[in-house]
Amino acid sequence: MSMPELSNVVGANPEQTAADAATQMTKANQRVTHFMVGAQKLMLEELVFLGNEFFDRAQTETHLFSEFVSKMAGAHSVKDIRTMYEECAKHQLEFIRRDCDRMFKNGERVIDAASNLFKSHPLN
Q: How many domains does the chain have?
């Protein structure tokens, strides 16, 4: 420490130093509170998304199963069963592809939201 810095520290007003420390603590507490609220919001959004995904998946699986049963009931020969199997397999693969796309997009959204949370509420 140089001599002018030392004289500033020695001559500092104790009430001013305490007020500055209190202000810094208040700002730090606000940043932590905002960060925690943002993290809770992100987790709640993910729980809502998960619930919607479960419901959507169950609905789609039910639709695919009813379509399978309907086609199976309409099949009267081995050729019809093979055609039905091919069509249902295509539908199932398309469903899996769309499901994976949705999950991938959600993963990107979560990563963006989490990085924005850390950017907007730095803890230091």
A: 1
Contact between 88 and 115 under an 8 Å Cβ cutoff? The reply is: no
The overall pTM is greater than 0.85: no
Assigned domain for 66 exists:
yes
Position 73 in a domain: yes
CA distance 95 to 91: 6
**Residue 3: which pLDDT band, with cuts at 50, 70 and 90?**
very low
Query: What's the CA gap between 3 and 9, in Å, rounded?
Result: 10
* Tokens, residue 5: 């810095």
9 in a structural domain: no
Mapped onto helix, strand or coil, the DSSP state of residue 57 is helix
Domain of 89, in residue numbers? 16-120
Q: Which two tokens stand for residue 93?
A: 């693969």
Contact assessment for residue 20 and residue 55, using Cβ atoms and an 8 Å cutoff: no
